[in-house]
Amino acid sequence: MREIQAQQITDVVEKLCIEANQYLPKDVQGAIRRCRACEDWEIARGVLDKIITNFEIAEQESVPICQDTGMACVFLEIGQDVHIAGGDLREAVDEGVRRGYDKGYLRKSVVKDPVRRGNTGDNTPAMLYTEIVPGEQIKVTVGPKGFGSENMSAIRMFKPSAGIEGIKDFILETVETAGPNPCPPMVVGVGIGGTFDKCALLAKKALMRSTDERNPDPYYADLEAEMLEKINKLGIGPQGFGGKTTALALNIETLPTHIAGMPCAVNINCHVTRHKTEVI
Amino acid sequence: MEKHIQLPLTEETAKTLHAGDSVYLTGTIYTSRDAGHKRMCEALSRGEELPFDPTDATIYYVGPTPAKPGQVIGSAGPTTSGRMDAYAPTMMSVGARGMIGKGARLPEVVEAMKKYHGVYFGAIGGAGALLAKCIKKCELIAYEDLGAEALRKLYVEDMPLVVIIDSEGKNLYEEGKAAYLASQK
Fold first, then answer.
1. Neighbour tally for A34: CB within 10 Å
2. Which tens digits make up the pLDDT trace of A175-232?
3. What is the mean pLDDT of residues A99-108?
């Protein structure tokens, strides 16, 4: 049994909120640069050049890459041999978000009620996901999620008879409907299987995976490659002005599901696909 | 085509701009998002004046991050314009002409743009750190309680934009994609 102070979790969440918003992950930077190198449409090249300059400025000057510094999605993988002492876990995470968004000069974009609105003023609560895993560490991932792209996401409960073709059509349809709105080039997170709620979570988790890493199952790795190629033939292009670079990557995560179902969720992210991880 | 435009955006200037033009705007613009637009339209329906003169005005759909010490403004890229579609025709009916944002607009907004000679400019979504560089002055003028969504008056120099929809209703999102796809055949 290892004891971890709630205060340590607060400190790590604070730090990750700031860093995730200022430094674009190297894999996403690399994907944008690679796409710029093979983009042949003039207006698209101009947009990608400005996107590259933008993340470079953010990194050099320690300012947010994008003004939508998102809802703070916090994923905790808690080792089963850990005892969290000295405070309430939920409050420790929210306090980290509160401090990070204050000290990092990040935008407070959360309303306290979905219908009646009213800004909470400190970007809390975090969207908190906890998982109990073997071991005596806590792995903390913060992924600030902007809503220009979140609003273009979709979920569908397919009949199993729809098969893989149904899923392929749904992914393409969702990306095409999103068009210029989610700030393309986008990163597409796909969840297949599980229940309604787990399927949506899989799609979100797919966005937390490196864009350089393929699904370990060759069947889904091939599907990732095929769908990325199809998306990049839609012609939407960077910012929707036309071009080859509509998506930087497509990541698929799956789970077993019920004999009667085949859920599929598509979580869209923008070119500012942010996440940062630290292990306590 | 690359054009340097001095604001305010007159009807005469608006008519010279075409979908796909690369433009650099210099002058005064105003910031507002959903909550600010709602309040402005409610004020207009009560017969009240707006917090700024809307004649030939350009509105930037943005909610910036807080400025760090020494900064004029924090990161300040565009938000999705579609959320302002319910209010844009009303704003144009009282004289506002330019809109800066990103993403698709409804047909009724395009119709109002043709009627009032409006122009919809696209700023690069997600390029907030870069766009902040061309904002030289920032002054809060109304609705302070809305925080990031408060109404601000900005002075911009050579703000890099692209005309997405022009005053004739031509649309870069449709034409740019079609032209690219045609080039691939």
1. 12
2. 999 999 999 999 999 999 999 999 999 999 999 999 999 999 999 999 999 999 999 9
3. 97
Cα gap A69→A67, rounded to integer Å: 6
Chain A hits for B71, Cβ within 8 Å: 63
Structural domain harbouring A202: 148-272
What the block records as the tokens of A53 is: 């300059």
> A135 and A217, same structural domain?
no
Give residue-wise pLDDT tens across range A138-161: 999 999 999 999 999 999 999 999
Closest to A125 (Cα-Cα) out of A116, A138, A112: A112
A242 located within any domain: yes
CATH assignment at residue B173: 3.20.130.10
Q: pTM for the whole thing?
A: 0.94
User: From the list A64, A151, A235, which residue is nearest B65 (CB)?
Assistant: A64
Q: Is A20 on the interface with B (CB under 8 A)?
A: no
Between the alpha carbon of residue A218 and those of residues A26, A187, A224, A252, B151, the distances in Å are: 25, 20, 10, 12, 52
Do the domain assignments include residue A60?
no
Total domain count, chain A: 2
Last residue of a domain, one of A112, A129, A145: A145
User: A200 touching B, CB under 8 A?
Assistant: no
Nearest to B176 among A43, A119, A272 (CB): A43
pLDDT at A60: 96
- Closest chain A residue to B22, measured at CA: A43
Mean pLDDT of all residues in A237-255 = 97
Show residues of chain B in contact with A115, CB under 8 Å: none
